[in-house]
Amino acid sequence: MLDSDTCHRARLSRDPRFDGQFFTAVRTTGIYCRPVCPATPPHERNVAYFSSAVEAAHAGYRPCLRCRPDSAPGSPAWKGVDTTLERALQLIDEGALQNASLGRLSERLGISDRYLRQLFQKRFGVSPKTYALYQQCLFAKQLLHQTNLPVTDVVYASGFQSIRRFNDCFKTQIGLNPSQLRRQSKPDGNELTLQLAYRPPYAWQTLQGFLAKRLIDGLEWIGDDYYGRSFTWRKAKGHFTATHDPHRHRFLVALEIDDLTAMKSVVYNIRRMLDLDADTRRIEAHLAQAIPGLPLIEGLRLPGIWSQFEAGIRAILGQQVSIVAARRLVQTLVDQLGEPLDDLSSAQRRRFPEPARIAASDLAFLKMPGTRRETLQRLAQWHLDHEDTRDANQWLALKGIGQWTVDYARMRGASHPDIWLGGDLGVKKALGELGSADPAAASPWRSYLTFQLWNR
C-alpha cells in the first residue's frame, strides 16, 4: 500500500499513473473512487485509502458511479505479495471458483484450503469465495455500464448460475439493483465493446511494431491504432479487436464470443496480452537503478500471446531460424490446420490449431527437420494429456524442448514478469554493449529488461 501522503497528492492531481493502485473511500458518502475520479475531491479528514476494491467494499463502501472502479487497471502482480496468492488471484480471475470448489483450487495450488483462506484473510480481510464473488459483481457492473447486453446475458457472462442469485449478490455487494444501474447508464455502439484502462505511459508504437513483424494473417490483424485476433478459450470461440485510445489511457475492445460464461476470463486474458496492468513507471525506475546506462523505452509492455501452448509452438517453430522464417512456418501451420471462423463475414480468418489437430497430423507440410516436427507433436500430445496443468517447466521432460523454449512460452504465453532470455543472441549483444551489467539485479522484472534490450 502506498503511503497516505502519496495517495493524497495522487488523488488531488488525478494522476492516471496511480489508477488502480489504491482507492479512496469517502466516509461522508459511503462511496469509494479511483484516483482519477472527476468528482470534487473530498477533504482529507473524510477519506480512507484502500489498496484494493474488495477491501473498500468489505469496509462497507460502494463503488462510485462516475469513475466506475470496475474499470480501473488491476493492481500489478509484482508488489511483493506471496507468490501462491498471486497464482490464486490469477486463477480466480480466470473463473476457477465459478465452476469448481475451493478445495479443487487449493489442490491446483498445492496447498490446503485452510491455508488459502488464511492468505486471503491476511491480504484482503475476506475469504476467497467473497473475493471471487465481488470480482464477478464488478465485472457485471462493467457490462451493465458499457454494453447493451440483456441483464440475463450479463448474469451468465459474469459467472452466476441464476438471475435470483445474481440480483441478491449484486444488491448486497454493489448497493444497487442491476435494473437501477442499467437505467442510469446509457451504453451505445456495439453491445460488446468494453473499455479496458491502463496506467500511462504506454509504448503502443513499439508494441505494435513488435506484433506486426510476427503477425499471422487470418489469425491476427493489426493497424496503426488497433490489434485483433481470433481465439479459442476452453470450449468458447471468438475474436476481438482492441483499438488504442491514448487520450483516455484505454483500449476499446470489440469482442465476439459464442459462450458468454467464458467472457470474464477471456477479457482477463486480453488484459494480460496487452499488459494493461503493469506499473511501467515503477518497473523502469527499478531497471534504471539495476542496469546503469540502459536507455529505456518509456511505457514498454510485454507483448503477450494468447496461450502458453501457442507460445510454445511458436517458439519451437522459431528455433534456429530468422523471425521471417519462423513467421512463415507459423503461417503455414495455421493455414493448414487452423479452424476457420464460423462468422461468414470472416471467411479468411482462422483460429490457432488445437493440440488435437497438431498431435494427429504428420506435419509433412512444414519444411523443417523431422525431429522438430516430432517435438511439435509431443508438445501437443502433452497438452492433451495434461489439460489442467499450466507449469511449462514440465515440458523440459519432452525431447527437443530446452530451457529457452520454456522461458519464451512463460514470458509471452503467461506474461511472467521475471524471465531472462540471456541465451538469445540479440540480448547478449545488447547487454554486452552496456559493460559489466548484471541482469540478476533487474529481478523481479527481467522480462521487461529482455524486451528493452530486444528493442535497442
TrEMBL record:
GO terms for biological process: base-excision repair, AP site formation; DNA alkylation repair; methylation. Its cofactor is Zn(2+). It comes from Modicisalibacter muralis. The keyword DNA-binding applies. Keywords: Activator, DNA damage, DNA repair, DNA-binding, Metal-binding, Methyltransferase, Transcription, Transcription regulation, Transferase, Zinc. Pfam families: Ada_Zn_binding, AlkA_N, HTH_18. GO terms for molecular function: alkylated DNA binding; DNA-3-methyladenine glycosylase activity; DNA-7-methylguanine glycosylase activity; DNA-binding transcription factor activity; methyltransferase activity; sequence-specific DNA binding; zinc ion binding. SUPFAM superfamilies: Ada DNA repair protein, N-terminal domain (N-Ada 10), DNA-glycosylase, Homeodomain-like, TATA-box binding protein-like. This is DNA-3-methyladenine glycosylase II. One of its GO terms (cellular component) is cytoplasm. Coiled coil: none annotated. InterPro entries: Ada-like_dom_sf, Ada_DNA_repair_Zn-bd, AlkA_N, AlkA_N_sf, Alkylbase_DNA_Glycosylase/TA, DNA_glycosylase, Homeodomain-like_sf, HTH_AraC. Residues 86-184 form the HTH araC/xylS-type domain.
